[in-house]
Automatic annotation (TrEMBL):
This is Small ribosomal subunit protein uS15. Residues 1-24 are annotated as: Disordered. One of its GO terms (biological process) is translation. Pfam families: Ribosomal_S15. One of the primary rRNA binding proteins, it binds directly to 16S rRNA where it helps nucleate assembly of the platform of the 30S subunit by binding and bridging several RNA helices of the 16S rRNA. Forms an intersubunit bridge (bridge B4) with the 23S rRNA of the 50S subunit in the ribosome. The gene is rpsO. The lineage of its organism: Bacteria, Candidatus Giovannoniibacteriota. The keyword RNA-binding applies. It comes from Candidatus Giovannonibacteria bacterium GW2011_GWA2_44_26.
């Protein structure tokens, strides 16, 4: 679970305008942070299948956001992939 100050920091880094909190770029960045944290948890607790299911749902959701972003704004998609260090 992300803390509110971590969320604010991520939103400020990835927002497209002053009051942006829900754009695809911001949501992908937030999901990526949550996925990283949950991956660390699952390395320690390998039999936690409930959390593993949540991880798979988050990965799927992030993939859908990335597909949408690649269709609508290719340049922002490329920047975001590079900034977050994600594979295509």
């Amino acid at each position: 679970m992300l803390k509110s100050k971590d969320k604010k920091k991520i939103v400020e880094e990835h927002r497209t305008h002053e009051k942006d909190t829900g754009s695809a770029e911001v949501q992908v960045a937030l999901l990526s942070k949550q996925i990283d944290e949950l991956t660390g948890h699952l390395k320690k607790h390998s039999k936690d299948n409930h959390s593993r299911r949540g991880l798979l749902k988050m990965v799927s959701k992030r993939k859908k956001f990335l597909e949408y972003l690649s269709k609508t704004n290719k340049s922002n998609y490329e920047k975001l992939i590079k900034k977050l260090g994600l594979r295509k």
